[in-house]
């Protein structure tokens, strides 16, 4: 019972600290921060695949499959968001950078 409360305490502390740190990141650093988090999500995905590979009971297989599914979605979604953020930094002039002299 104590282990559950300790795990909940650590989770709540990590969530609070993560929110406070991310809330103070300047806008210009969001793109590199998102790229770094995509790297971490890739590691989480590999861990979920390893856990799924060692699963034996149907419950473990289900939890592992959900972990792989959520990890893959999180990593792919992170790259989509990063791509959108990088689009904001591109020039909005038509033909910019293509050698047009019009």
Entry summary:
The protein is an all-alpha fold and 102 residues long.
What does this structure look like?
- It is a single chain.
- This protein is mostly helical and 102 residues long.
- The protein has a domain at 26-90.
- It has helices at residues 2-23, 30-53, 58-87.
- Helix 2 packs antiparallel against helix 3 (58-87).
- The chain crosses the membrane at residues 6-27, 39-55, 61-81.
- Its EC number is 7.1.1.1.
- It is found in: Cell inner membrane.
- Pfam families: PNTB_4TM.
- It is a multi-pass membrane protein.
User: What structural class should be given to the helix and strand makeup?
Assistant: mainly alpha
Structure annotation, total helices: 3
- Secondary structure: helix percent: over 70%
**Outline, from the CA principal axes?**
flat
Average pLDDT figure: 80
Low-confidence stretches: none
Biggest β-sheet: count, sense, barrel? none
Proportion in β-strands: under 5%
Terminal Cα separation, in Å? 73 Å
Number of strands: 0
Main features:
102 residues, mainly alpha, 3 helices, 0% strand, kinase activity
Task: Produce the secondary structure layout.
Elements: H1 2-23, H2 30-53, H3 58-87
Helix pairs in contact: 2-3
GO cellular component, one term: plasma membrane
Protein name: proton-translocating NAD(P)(+) transhydrogenase
Enzyme class: translocase
């Amino acid at each position: 019972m104590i282990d559950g409360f300790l795990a909940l305490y650590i989770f709540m502390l990590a969530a609070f600290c993560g929110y406070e740190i991310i809330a103070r990141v300047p806008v210009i650093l969001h793109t590199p921060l998102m790229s770094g988090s995509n790297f971490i999500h890739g590691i989480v995905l590999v861990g979920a695949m390893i856990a799924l590979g060692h699963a034996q009971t149907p419950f473990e297989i289900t939890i592992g499959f959900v972990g792989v599914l959520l990890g893959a979605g999180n990593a792919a979604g992170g790259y989509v968001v990063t791509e959108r953020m990088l689009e904001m930094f591109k020039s909005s002039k038509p033909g910019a950078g293509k050698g047009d002299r019009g």
